[in-house]
Design goal:
Strand 4, helix 4 and strand 5 form a beta-alpha-beta unit. It contains 25 helices and 10 strands. Helix content is about 55%, strand content about 10%. The radius of gyration is 29 Å and the shape is flat. The longest helix has 19 residues. The strands form 2 sheets. Strands 2-1-3-4-5 form a 5-stranded parallel sheet, with helices on both faces. It is of the alpha/beta class and about 550 residues long.
């Protein structure tokens, strides 16, 4: 059968040869079409040889990897690209994905990852071309079927279908394709990527696939057998390992966790939490292990995500009840409502829930339960004083559901303050409380525009959740926060340009821009002329 053709484009000779040596050409039914050491040569070779797959670096002399991809797309050549980049070129890699690149690999290149990506791509090409790719010969079809069976076992655990868990170990291995061993340890865990769902679907899938691939490649060396199952913005893992590795496994997972954190670092808003459930001695205990992993996930609010969260370490600590709200604090809340002092009310409520968080330090995985407990007491008192008219049971359940989405403690407290504030009748005393908060926000921007000001900073000042503040600001002002901030800064810059004592760089710094060139470009976009031209026209 004719083999698929592959071209490698990488300007560093050593890396080019390394890629070639890492590829399992025979088992993947691949043939090397050539090696190019610059973009122009790669372009010429693609035109003449028409390879099916091109592995290219982002940064190359002459024609860059992105330019090469663009040119080939314009030529309508049916080639499939895999790009290689370092962290410094990560944004370019994201651009390439938007252009339709199949996958990308970060340096240093891992043999397992490279061949997994190629195998997946070859199957896709074969399917598109309707070629009999001899899947039986490569055992890819049976491998895919086995993987489905193994993952269905995790799905059964996830949805509490216990029938599979009570099979004998030999039968479980036979029916689900595992290689579990007797007298060993089993455990489950999860890796959850907060804010992943804010990205587009293509980026979500790419990031999740890369994380699973890196996790699988690293963990296989420490396990007898393992499996991974992805669901929404997380993946769940099942591990079987020798008892002698039990104490070391947390260390192995910590190293892997650090690698995954490094991988997502270029995505500013993404965080990753790894939770490891309590180990068990038999498969029938795996539901319990997964449950303990899920129960400790809220601990990331207080402990952060820099380390693996271990259920064995956290759940052994004695749980404490939610913060016992002192009557004096509740009375202070009531007084602040009665005297129509919204800022005081917000400050007291914020302090109340900060104290709740502090009480949870000994058992951080109980943080959400403690917040719900405190909220229950606050709602009950407000209702008893006839200061709220909502159904407190429904409101309480709504709050408890909403806080599951939060991964950072200050964000959670801001949301909580905003949630309660919407329930109390401040709107009865002020014709437009939303408008007043936006006016306070605008005043704060006017006073702090020269700083590195972000939406989150301003939202915190007026005790609103950033996401809600962003929507409210645009509704009240008619433009987004960032557009308004830019307008304020540009107007101040126009004033300063009338004073010839200041040079352009100084003015840029005065209005919050450290990069003179960026400021000049932005100024021209807003005003229609450059700062220099504006000064020439309008300066006294």
């Amino acid at each position: 059968m004719k083999k698929f053709q592959l071209l490698i484009a990488e300007d560093e000779i050593a890396i080019n040869n390394l890629i070639k040596n890492l590829i399992d050409f025979e088992s993947l039914n691949l043939e090397l079409a050539g090696q190019a050491y610059d973009g122009q040569t790669a372009y010429d070779m693609i035109l003449s040889k028409r390879p099916n797959i091109i592995i290219t670096d982002i940064s190359m002399p002459g024609i860059t990897g992105l330019e090469l991809i663009q040119r080939i797309l314009e030529e309508n050549i049916p080639a499939h690209f895999i790009i290689i980049s370092g962290l410094s070129c990560f944004n370019h890699a994201l651009t390439a994905i938007k252009m339709g690149v199949e996958d990308y690999l970060l340096k240093p290149i891992n043999k397992g990852e490279l061949n997994d990506v190629l195998e997946k791509l070859i199957l896709k090409i074969a399917s598109q071309l309707k070629i009999d790719y001899q899947i039986q010969k490569m055992n890819l079809d049976s491998h895919a079927q086995a993987q489905k069976l193994r993952r269905s076992f995790i799905i059964n655990i996830l949805y509490n279908k216990d029938s599979a868990l009570h099979l004998s170990l030999p039968r479980l291995n036979k029916e689900y394709g595992f290689a579990f061993q007797m007298n060993t340890c089993f455990s489950m865990g999860l890796c959850l990527i907060d804010n992943l769902l804010d990205l587009n679907l293509a980026a979500q899938n790419t990031i999740l696939e890369q994380l699973i691939r890196r996790f699988s490649s690293a963990i296989r060396d420490y396990c007898i057998d393992f499996e991974v199952y992805s669901k929404n913005h997380q993946f769940i893992f099942l591990l079987n390992y020798h008892p002698r590795h039990a104490e070391l496994l947390l260390g192995y997972l910590s190293v892997i966790h650090e690698d995954l954190l490094e991988f997502i670092r270029p995505y500013e808003n993404l965080t990753l939490a790894t939770c490891w459930g309590i180990p068990v001695s038999e498969p029938k205990g795996l539901s319990y292990s997964l449950q303990t992993a899920m129960e400790i996930l809220p601990a990331r609010l207080l402990l952060g995500t820099s380390r693996v969260l271990s259920a064995q370490q956290l759940t052994g600590k004695k749980a404490v009840p939610g913060y016992p709200v002192p009557p004096s604090e509740l009375q202070a809340l009531r007084s602040s409502i009665e005297i129509r002092d919204l800022p005081k009310f917000q400050l007291q409520l914020k302090g109340l829930f900060k104290n709740t968080a502090s009480r949870c330090r000994p058992c951080p995985h109980k943080i959400l339960a403690a917040f719900c407990d405190t909220m229950s007491k606050v709602l009950s008192e407000l209702h008893q004083w006839k200061m709220i008219t909502v159904n407190i049971t429904d409101t309480y359940l709504q709050y408890c559901d909403a806080i599951e989405a939060y991964s950072e403690i200050n964000e959670l407290i801001r949301f909580t303050v905003s949630f309660v504030q919407k329930l109390v009748p401040f709107h009865q005393y002020e014709e437009n409380s939303d408008n007043r908060q936006i006016e306070l926000a605008k005043q704060y921007i006017q006073e702090h525009f020269s700083e590195n000001l972000k939406l989150e900073n301003v939202a915190e000042q007026i005790y609103l959740a950033p996401s809600y503040f962003g929507v409210l600001f645009k509704k009240e002002v008619g433009e987004s926060f960032s557009c308004y901030l830019t307008s304020v800064r540009i107007e101040k810059a126009k004033e300063l340009l009338h004073d010839i004592r200041y040079n352009i760089a100084e003015i840029a710094g005065e209005v919050g821009y450290q990069d003179k060139r960026y400021f000049s470009r932005l100024f021209k976009e807003q005003v229609g002329v450059t700062p220099k031209e504006y000064r020439k026209i309008y300066a006294d």
